[in-house]
Queue: 2 jobs
Job 1
Amino acid sequence: MKARVMESVPRDLRHLWHPCSQMKDYAETPPVKIVRGRGVHLYDATGQCYIDGISSWWVNLFGHANPRLNRVLARQSRTLEHVLFAGFTHEPAVAYAEALVRVAPPGLTKVFFADNGSSAVEAALKMSYQYAVQKAGKKRPLFIALSGGYHGETVGALSVGGLPLYRTVYSGMLMPVRFAAAPACLSCPYGKTPVSCDAECLSSLKILLRKTGADRVAGIIVEPLVQCANRMNMYPPVYLKKLRALCDRARVHLIADEIAVGFGRTGRLFACEHAGISPDLLCLSKGITGGYMPFSAVLATQDIFDAFYGDWHSGRAFLHSHSYTGNPLAAALALEVLHIFRGERILAKMKPRITQMGERLRALSRHPFVSGIRQTGLIGAFDLVCDKESGQPFASRLRAGRVVCRAALTHGALLRPLGDTIYFMPPLVVSEREMDRLFDAAVKALGALGTGRARGRGDQVQK
Ligand SMILES: *Cc1c(COP(=O)(O)O)cnc(C)c1O
């Protein structure tokens, strides 16, 4: 048994190229082979159990091998696994679109399916661009995005991404995008707190929009409340409220990328609800199938949909497709996810867990290497610093975040750093005991930093 376990890793490295990885790192620390999952736990080939502290890259909502989702997937696979979605339809897609529109922010009545987050962003950008051409007969060639934003890795999605780590090497092949400074609440340049904040920092975007000329901008794309890949950079709902008003005045689309923050992570089904706003286009993926299958949706307003409606010869159609658009297995899972949210009162049950996470994070604030504690719903984060007083980061060559997360594994918690930021994004169904075990493991793992006297500058972060 043990021999087979050992041998499976070189087999992996012989042919596989892992995502978002320097493959050379695996020569020293091979990938952990997971053989099964149950609830919030994952089990490796040696039987060691890990609590999934980051929902397997922000996708899992209701635990691994969830009995209800398993049942729905098995049932749907016996009935219809796939059919092309142009000219054909099926009940899981119809029922899901109905259910999704019912719970989505008001005004978003049209549902376009794609099959992963990046492709949902691509579709939303193309819709926004084509809308301008067809509505006013005039090109609006630009998009505005926020620094530090993350919208996926395909070329269009990467173009609106504001993280140099992912985009710099491709800069020659990206489309033109203007970037405004993202909110920076951890050290607010206006000296405000999230409570006293009036979104003063939106001025960066306002000035940019004026300078660029609003009539040259198709849309503004943001991640509501949390820029997850940007070290969990969090900002209050008032920013979204004012951004919505700005987009209305400038007649520019507001594109909300809720691929990570949607489906309950912030304590509401959608993050936009905290601000009481509706975007013009809403991108959803990740948790949409509870973490079971790649699937995504772009929700659009009737106004946007209407700009594409006409005779075939008008050339107004949205001729965008993916082979697996509207896949019945994924749609059936997505529908069951909404049933589970309602039937099992998931959002209500999360409330004490959100409070508990807050308490555990606050307790960590006394730790000598912990700074910048922040939380939105069931997403919590802090930064590792080697000197609390000055906020001095660890030397980047130490890869302190990686050191802590490697240690967390040995204490039974799956965490993955964003540079030297450690964050927690457990499945929404995490129990009180499991949350405690997750934080206990993280606290123990901080011990791996020793006394942390080494000094140096921080570095760019890797998702
Ligand atoms: C993960 C993510 C994406 C990209 O989704 P993929 O399915 O990985 O292509 C886009 N936007 C945000 C906010 C994300 O977190």
Job 2
Amino acid sequence: MFVTATEGTSPLLACLCRMLLGLWLVIAPGLGMAVEVPVTPKKILIFGGNGFMGTRTSELLIDAGHDLTLVNRGNWYWDSAFTVKPYTRHITCDRAQAIEKCLKLEEFLNNSEGLDAVIDFSAYHPQYMEDALSLLTGKVGLYIYISTDSVYEVCEKNHTEPSLETDAVRPSSPDRQAELEATDSYGHYKLACEEVLARHRREGSGPPYISLRLPDVVGPRDSTYRWWIYQLWMRLRHFLEKDVIVPAKVLNQPISLAYVEDVAQTIFQLVQSRNKYESSYSPEGPPLDQAYNLALHETPTLYELLKDIRHELNLTDSITIKTDGGHETIKLYPSVHAGPMNISKAVKLLGWSPTNYSTVVKDTVEFYEKAISTVHFDDPRRYMIRTMQTYFTSKPYDVIRGLGEVYQVYFGQRRDEL
Ligand SMILES: *[C@@H]1O[C@H](CO)[C@@H](O)[C@H](O)[C@H]1NC(C)=O
Ligand SMILES: *[C@@H]1O[C@H](CO)[C@@H](O)[C@H](O)[C@H]1NC(C)=O
Ligand SMILES: *[C@@H]1O[C@H](CO)[C@@H](O)[C@H](O)[C@H]1NC(C)=O
Ligand SMILES: *[C@@H]1O[C@H](CO)[C@@H](O)[C@H](O)[C@H]1NC(C)=O
Ligand SMILES: *[C@@H]1O[C@H](CO)[C@@H](O)[C@H](O)[C@H]1NC(C)=O
């Protein structure tokens, strides 16, 4: 079903509004702070840079005056078309295709003397990493790879504590390896990417690197929409058919989460501290060529997280969260079985100091409460409405009615598609 926003604004006004908002969003972060423009802007190549973590990271780097080249398929998520795209060089490239097809990237690299840093948000297959490294040999000061806690899914911990970086070792038995790969191909491929980086480095051709292993990341502009789905589910509960449910099997499972702002700030700091023409970090810099777990200190269960979102929405007395759904299992967190991560290494060596959990919940809820009535988030809003209509009720119009009553935003059915 198609749903379109009709909020009483003319298309022209809406368009103007978007432009102004885009400008404001770019300028605003710099207004209050004395941002020091570096003497020499750093040259940074970003694979991705238009998604959830990438957009926020790009914004920080743009604000600091760096020279960004983004390589991606050209989908601009949320408002990245306004806050990122105009301030960066863009190369359209689909990494699922052979790298030879990406002539623009090759040409760009042929003509560039070197890159201070590469930030890779989009390597999901070892071939993507091989391709990138084949073009980048000898040209990169630091390669920051955005990895995942799913790598622990294809390894076998010999303890039951939170996962340590050293736990990412595949089992020695090839049969067992294959078995685990089959259960989590995402984790398998992401670990394979880390392994490619490490091998190139060992063999002397690869750049210095850092892999950041991230759990489920939360915060504004999540392009997986998971948090927002839970939030809107609770907000519209009385207009939907499905109960809010936590599946019994994850009831007591603690979850590692990371906050998008903390992740972006950490990547930003890593890039700031690196210069292609320095032979190494200053002694107090973090050790390179390794992986770091990043997550919040707190590890709530899904039940606790939903209760905290509900509390922030002032719905504690009116919405019930059920803890046994029978066969009904909508479960969006966590995406792993291996449990939370131990972050003591990043705390000690990267100065990782994440935002506290209650602030994360408060700020994230606040963002999505506003997002539903933000005109320039039209695509995400439509996606959310379709999701509610498809999975949470058999009466699509109730979703529209609920949005009107709860948020005073009015969406009309499009009538010109007969
Ligand atoms: C890049 O440089 C290599 C080596 O000089 C050359 O073979 C290749 O054609 C160049 N690629 C492009 C797209 O200019
Ligand atoms: C557990 O695994 C780690 C990493 O694979 C290894 O260094 C350690 O010796 C193992 N400990 C035991 C008790 O087997
Ligand atoms: C919840 O209540 C507080 C205090 O009355 C208010 O400031 C806040 O905006 C409310 N939140 C929502 C989502 O309604
Ligand atoms: C994390 O690992 C460190 C170092 O191995 C250990 O001292 C600490 O107790 C662990 N923390 C948790 C919460 O498991
Ligand atoms: C979390 O951080 C906020 C802002 O820094 C602070 O006001 C609040 O007291 C902290 N909450 C907890 C539980 O530490």
